[in-house]
């Protein structure tokens, strides 16, 4: 950057831990799989998966796959270790069918990223992971990928960001505490945006000619946020945003939370566990898809308040319309299913 002294922006950088102090913080690169690179592998050459399923494979599910006439998709194998990443049920089904070989795709990443891939695969298809499995997977990913945001780990493990945050809090002494984290879009953001705004305000005051991008890079925030900080300083305001007022009265929020707590708790503790055990749902693709949809919506009640408070004002109308449409769709589904059950 032109016109900046050696003790300019760099002198205001917040002190970061030495990279050698936390060896687990290293760049993670998603390695794409060539969907055309399906090969035939001898079953005897494969090692069991480092599976996110704490209780191992489901014998009934493997037998159901073996007895079906469907052509099963290729399994995913970690090339360097010849260890299955995803597809242990399909592998057992192939053995039960008497096959000696199985179709597979290879993955060439490291072991930690292979586990992440296994979790993602088991979230998006196949037999759904239990809440205990997903929570344990999230804890392991938080240890191996501490630079990932709560939201990114949550999307991988099929949990809410708040749940992942609580898991990370329990692991405080086990994992490095970083000032910045990587989101699902690949961008690095500060854990505390207020701190980034304060740093940007100091940099702008000391170097008023610095570009937005240069300040953003040092402060760990976006150029758009730096622009907002600059405008706030010009108006004589503090660089940090004021606390957002709660538009919902406390009594209404409390009543809503009490009702939601009871309803969601019934779904999570009684209805969903019962449905997951039902073979008529578990052993067909449509049933498993329905279980995944129900499981994805069974978030903790107090999470709704956090989600509502996080909605930007310029998106509020669109998100409200989308929520209404999804709610109406679920309502229609509920009515049709109930009518079918009463016939």
Kindly, what is the distance between the CA atoms of the first and last residues, rounded to a whole number of angstroms? Answer: 73 Å
* Total helical segments: 14
Largest sheet: 4 strands, mixed
Percent of residues in helices: 40-55%
Give the neighbour order of strands across the main sheet: 1-4-2-3
Low-confidence region ranges: 1-32
Offer a quick outline of the entry.
The protein is α+β, with helices and mostly antiparallel strands. It contains 14 helices and six strands. Strand 5 and strand 6 form a beta hairpin.
Could you characterize the architecture of this molecule?
- The protein has 343 residues and is of the alpha+beta class.
- Helix content is 52%, strand content 7%.
- The chain has helices at 59-67, 88-96, 111-124, 131-144, 150-157, 161-170, 193-206, 212-219, 223-234, 250-276, 279-282, 285-297, 301-309, 316-342, and strands spanning 39-42, 75-78, 83-86, 101-107, 180-182, 188-190.
- The strands form two sheets. It has a four-stranded mixed β-sheet. The chain has a two-stranded antiparallel ribbon with strand order 5-6.
- Strand 2 and strand 3 (83-86) form a beta hairpin.
- The longest helix is centred in the last third of the chain and has 27 residues, at 250-276.
- The radius of gyration is 25 Å and the shape is globular.
